[in-house]
Structures are given as structure tokens and as C-alpha cells.
Amino acid sequence: MKVLKFGGTSVASAKNIALVKDIVSQSDNLKNIVVVSAFGGITDLLLQAAHLASEQNEKYKSVLKDIEERHLNTIKQLIPVHGQSRILSKVKSDLNILETLLEGSFLIGEITTKLSDKIVSYGELLSSYIIFEFFKQEQMDVTYKDSRELIKTNDLNEKAVVNFEVTDALCKTFFESVQKSIVVAPGFISSSEMGNSTTLGRGGSDYTAAIFAAAMNADVLEIWTDVSGMYTANPKLVKQAKALPHISYEEAMELSHFGAKVLYPPTIQPVLSKGISILIKNTFKPDDKGTLITQNKNGKGKTVRGISHVENIALLSLEGPGMVGIPGISKRFFEVLSQAGISVVLITQASSEHSICVGISAEDTDEAVNTVNAAFEYEIDRNRIKPVIAEGNLAIIALVGDNMKSHQGLSGKMFSTLGRNNVNIRAIAQGASERNVSAVIKKNDVKKALNALHEEFFEENIKQLNLFVMGVGNVGSKFLKQVQQQKKYLKENLKLNIRIIGISNSRTMVFDEDGIALKNWEGLLEKGEKADKNSFFDTVQKLNYRNSIFVDNTASDEVASTYDAYLGNSISVVTCNKIACSSNYENYQGLKNMAREYNAPFLFETNVGAGLPIIDTLKHLIASGDKVLKIQAVLSGSLNFVFNNFNDKTTFYDVVKQAQEEGYTEPDPKIDLSGIDVMRKILILARESGNRLEIDDIENKSFLPKESLETKSNEDFFASLKKYENDFQDLYTQANEADCKLKYVAQYEDGKASVGLQQIPKNHDFYNLQGSDNIVLFYTERYPNQPMIIKGAGAGAEVTASGIFADIIRIGNF
Ligand code: ADP
Ligand code: ASP
Ligand code: MG
């Protein structure tokens, strides 16, 4: 004999029920019990109608109408017209009784659990009847049995306790006498010895099937649902989750107890005691292997087998000096909760015995608080115990696996992964079986925590980086192109999966939780919503992805002022924008401190020398104990370009114009020519060398005439360059006569920094600097005479974009 159970989604429509028929017809067993749930969503609607009626809200009628239509339509689609009328009239008469029950509740304005169970039982009664009639219509060898006549329970409504002795006997008598090869029966519903309808708890159709399977010693219990088995984590929340081919009863029990809804937890016990295996299968992909659950322990397989979670948890804490060394307080605490019918999902006790903390279902919070406070009234009045504290909006997340006990360090890895992703842990518990480690976290963090843990324990170390990119001008667009080109390589070789989740320019912004298709980001961005840097941040925070990185490719001070919000939420920041690092020292240092505190890297390699590894090298020198004595550098690709091209055959004006047009200067070329940009760079290098310096401390010996410096527009600026052409020519001639070249040099020594134009003689390292190249000489305690030299292309969108990319890979390897 085989028992097949089909869940709500599997029977949600006529189309789905036809799939169910195919599966049942193909069963290789002579005898089959087919247990069905209510049509998907109907149980919720019935409960909603009951609730509305009990509040004397007329809206229950429209809910009832929806319920009615769902059933009548399904019949019309499944059964040919000539066979419909008998079935329609039976279902209508059932729906009339349902209406009378709801009306009763509406009139008296209340509902008992007994009436509620009666109402909700119609979901399964109707679905099973319709499916039975359909099977009959399809010439299958089928009969019907109301499960209430077989499963007997106590009178506790909504989650009745089964009397197995009576139930098993009734099942045996009935199923053994059946001649047909298929019996269709409703799941979830049962009846008390008094004859009232009872139910087995939400999701209880699985349990019905298990009770039948155990009573009849079935060959197998098949649970047909809408996913291909028990997964490593809820596949609706973790895209990378995989179906587990095989798990033990105990593992299945822990996973389902901690929220893997695919199997109702009580289901396992009856079949476990008979050694009957459970096979979880997908109605919509019947060829998928599914998950087999048996006695066999997970041999050498993975230690962590699955991650599950329970939402809507509250923590209750009882504490006070009166708890120390007084035996029996915990016992009383648990007794009160159990007498109130409140089950405890998780227990932790502080080792000081000063407090005890338990996790319960959030819906039980009020009742728990009231009963516990009442029970400890005497102690509370005398300040020996504080009134119980309840904290809501929490969830439990649990790692499960048979072999976890023999492996050290799993919980360490779990908690450090959560910590790295800024998931705050409120409580921790390890099951006595050592088959699970669980943590209580905020409900909002569940998706992030599940995915981060899944990545850590199941994804062969592929790390997903979720990028939010602001600014897609020259640098930003090159950067996106590089990501697109390298995506595959990074995944295969560095095990990094880079996804661009958000993009914004100054006009619009766009987000895609599955990653923006980079082929067409321009089109998508154009159609995006109105850009706003604050709502951009809000979205990043709300999405709450693990390994989130904010990438700033702008030169905006407003954008720079949002970094602290990102870092404070453990979101890394990568930027080529120099504003933050060259702002006042407090701000710069504050951001670096936050990065450390919140475990979120703040990287700005491209602030100096574009893609050249200048800051990274400096960091390594300092970290390994070296000390910077002096820095000499040519740090402006723009000024280098200008002075390499300027001579007595060109005009200064023309050269600057050309530099601007070819993208070697900032849009406002004065920022480069005045030396401000170089000042910012040497300031950042001085700070990274460990010195507390402000921009005003830097001496700027500008070569520009005062009038040029004071211009307010690009136009005026260029006009002034024309006007002072002779002065610029003088600079060139003097240098030429001294056999020198002009270079704009930044220098830092003994806590002092300066920038300015210098005549560089032939034998100097700077003399042969080409095009827009940068060069930095680090004189340190380890390199006192021959400096460490870093030289190469120091400007341009392509190299800057690659520098940003390098910072992102650094974070990936962090
Ligand atoms: P049915 O109506 O068939 O009984 P349920 O909705 O009760 O189906 O259970 C199936 C659902 O369980 C899946 O759609 C999935 O969202 C959820 N689920 C949660 N955790 C897991 C898990 N670890 N593996 C598979 N499914 C899970
Ligand atoms: N229909 C019931 C519910 O939705 C039982 C089940 O589907 O297992 O909870
Ligand atoms: Mg279910």
C-alpha cells in the first residue's frame, strides 16, 4: 500500500488536479490512499470569513462568495456538463451549511474554537469530494472516505491530539475491507470521541497521510507539493538552495520543527516508529528525484544539512536577584507557560542563573506575559523578580545536521558570518541532540542571514557581492562595462559573483533584486524612478543584502556625505570621489573608524593615481611596521599632460583646452590647474601615512595669476589664460634655459606638505614622465635612500574604473 498526499498548491486549480490524476494513475501500487488538502488558499479564506463574521463584519459574505466561486468553477472545468448537476448541488448544499455556520457566528458576534474547526473543515471536505468525483469521472477505480470517521482525537480544537489506539484500529478495519484500488480522503480533519469535527493543526494534511501510512504499514509515504523536496534552505528565500536527495528522520524533524514548512513536524513520528520512508516530490516536476527521508543517518556527508527559520518569534526574559540559587523558578516558569498551552520553541539560560530567556510564538506574547506575571506576583511585588520582558519582531534561524556534534567551530563560523553581515544575535541555543544550533535574530534580517549562511555552508565558497552604483559618467560607465566583461571570469576563477543591484545618475535610478541586466543598463536607467540619494540609501538598506557595496563614481560632496549611513549599516563603500577623504580630519577618521566598527571596508584607492596601487602599498608598508619619512610625487595626470605638451610653439590656452576636451581634466579645469586636486591627493597620502593634517596646512605655491584663480566661470578662466599667455611662456623659457622640465610636484616631509610647479633637472626621476603618468616616491625607514617608486598611468576613465574594480575584488577576498 502507498499513501500519497497532495498539498494546497497541487490541488489549487482544475489544471493542477489533472496533474494529480496523472500521478495517481501512474502509481505502481495495488492499493493507494490519496490524501488531499483544501484548494490552495481556501483554509486562509475560511478562517478569514470566520473571523469577520465573529466581528459582525458583513464582509464575510464576499469572502464566502469567493470560496463558493473557486469550487463551482473548478467543478465546471473538471467535469463534463452532463455530469455536473449532481456534484454542483451536493457542493452547494455543503456551502449552504457553511453559510449557516458563519451566519450563526455573525449573529452572536463570537466564535468558539469548536465552531471554527467545523467551518474550516469544509476546505478539505469540498476539495476531497470534488477530486473523488473527478477521478470517478475519469474511470479510475476509486472510493471515498471521510477521514473524520477514521482519525479520532481528544476534544482540544485547532490542534487536537490523536488517539492512536482507536484510530489505528478504525483505519485497519476500513482500509483492509476496501476493494477499490484508490481511496480519496480529506487531510487535516478528524473528529473527537464526542463526534465533533476537530483539526490537526495548520499544515496537518501531511499528518493525516502519515497516520494512515503508519496504521497500514504502507510501503512509502509520498508528500506531493510545490517544490522538489526538502531544500538546504527555503527555496522561496534562498535562490541558491538545493533539494537534498536524502536525509534522516531526525534531520527532517529538526528542519521542519525550525520552519521548513514543506513537512508538518508531527508527520515524522508515526512513520518513524514503523520505519516507513517518506518521499517528498514535486507535483509540477514529477521527474525530479525529490527527497527521501529514512532511518539511515547521514554517513560521511556534509555536516550542516540545512538551514531553516521560524518567523514571528518573541523572546520572554525573566530576571531578578530572587532567581539566583533558588531552585524551582525555571520549573515554575515552564509550568505556567505549558498550563497556558504556550509552547516554548527555544531556551537559553544565562550562566549566572540571574535570568532565563525563552522563545515563543509571537501570537502568544500577551497571554504569556499576563500568566507569567500573575504566577510570580509575590516575587515581583517584593522586587525579587522583575516583571517579565517581552521582545517581538524576532525570528529563529537554525543550522541542522546529524554530524554537527562531531565538528568544532561550526557555531563560530555561523556567528562570525552573521556578525560580518551586521545581523545582531539576540539569543543562542544549541539543541541537546547537538543536531542543531539556533539563533534568535531580527525578523527583518532573516533573508540576509539565510543567504549569508547558505553561501558560507553550501555554495562552495562562491561569494555574492551586491553592488549599488552611483554615478555612471565616464568612470561609472567604463566600470559597468568591465564588470560585464569580467563577470564570468571572476565567478570561475575567484569564486566571486558580482551583481549590480542598483544604478543611479543625477536624474534617475533603477533597482533589480535579481541583478540589473548589464547589456541594457542605459535603457533601464532612463526608464527608472527619479533619482534621490536618500531614497537610494533607503532602498539599499531595505533590500538588506549580504555583502552590499556602495560604489561612488561621482565627484559630489552630497554623495560623500552619505557614506556614514552606509558604513553604519555594515555596507562597504568604494569611491573614487576624493571629497570625503580630503574633508576635515575628524570626518575622514570617523569614516575609517566606522568601517572598522561595522566590519565594512571603506576603500578609496582611486583617490590617488587612479588605478595605481598607491594607497594599498602605503597601507601595507605601515601595517608591516615601516614609517614614511618623505613623499615626493607627481600626482596630477592633467597637469602632467599640460606641461608635457606646452612649449614655445603652442599656447598655454590651447593646451589646457585640449586637455579638457580629451577628458584629462575635471569638467572645471581650474580644480586641476589651481593645484586643489593635487593638494587633496597629498593630503590623503599624508593621512594614510599616519599624520593628522588638514587641507589648510598644505602650502600651495600656485603658478596661476591671481586673476585666473579668482574667476567664477570656465569662460572667464580661459579668457584669463589667454590674457596671461606671456607669463606662462616665461615659465617655459626659464625652465628650458636651465635644461629642466616643468612638473607639478607634491611633497610631504616632517609633517608638512606643499604643492607647486618645479623645474626638474635631467637626472631626476620625474624628468622623463610621459603623457598623463603619475609617479610617487616613498622614502621610508626601510627605503631611506632609494625610494619605493610607483609609476604609471594616473588618470583616465578606464584605469580609474579598473582601480574601483580592484577595490571591489579586495572586499570580495576580505
Ligand atoms: P503544501 O501546500 O504542498 O503542503 P506547503 O506550502 O505546506 O505545501 O510547503 C511547501 C513550501 O514549504 C514550499 O513552497 C517552500 O516555500 C516552503 N519551505 C520552507 N522551507 C523549505 C525547505 N527547507 N525546503 C523546501 N521547502 C521549504
Ligand atoms: N488546509 C490546511 C492548511 O492550509 C491543511 C494543509 O493544507 O495541510 O493548513
Ligand atoms: Mg503543507
Walk me through what this model shows.
This protein is α/β, with parallel strands linked by helices. Helix 2 runs antiparallel to helix 5 (113-137) and helix 10 packs across helix 11 (365-375). The longest helix is centred in the N-terminal third of the chain and has 28 residues, at 81-108. The two termini are 55 Å apart. The model has no long low-confidence stretch (mean pLDDT 93). Residues 7, 203, 206, 264 line the site of magnesium ion (MG).
Explain the layout of strands and helices.
Blueprint (H helix, E strand, L loop, with lengths): L1 E5 L7 H12 L6 E5 L5 H13 L5 H19 L2 H28 L4 H25 L4 E3 L7 E2 L10 H14 L4 E5 L2 E4 L4 E3 L5 H11 L4 E6 L20 E3 H9 L10 H7 L2 E6 L8 E4 L11 E14 L9 H11 L4 E6 L5 E7 L3 H11 L1 H5 L7 E12 L9 H11 L4 E6 L5 E7 L3 H13 L4 E8 L3 H21 L1 E9 L3 E4 L9 H6 L2 E2 L2 H11 L4 E5 L4 H4 L2 H6 L3 E4 L3 H4 L2 H13 L4 E2 L10 H10 L4 E7 L2 H9 L6 H10 L8 H4 L2 H13 L10 E3 L4 H4 L4 H10 L1 H13 L3 E9 L2 E9 L12 E8 L7 E6 L3 H16 L2
Helix pairs in contact: 1-3, 2-3, 2-4, 2-5, 3-4, 3-5, 4-5, 6-7, 7-9, 10-11, 13-14, 15-30, 23-24
Bound molecules: adenosine-5'-diphosphate, aspartic acid and magnesium ion.
The site of magnesium ion has 4 residues, from loops.
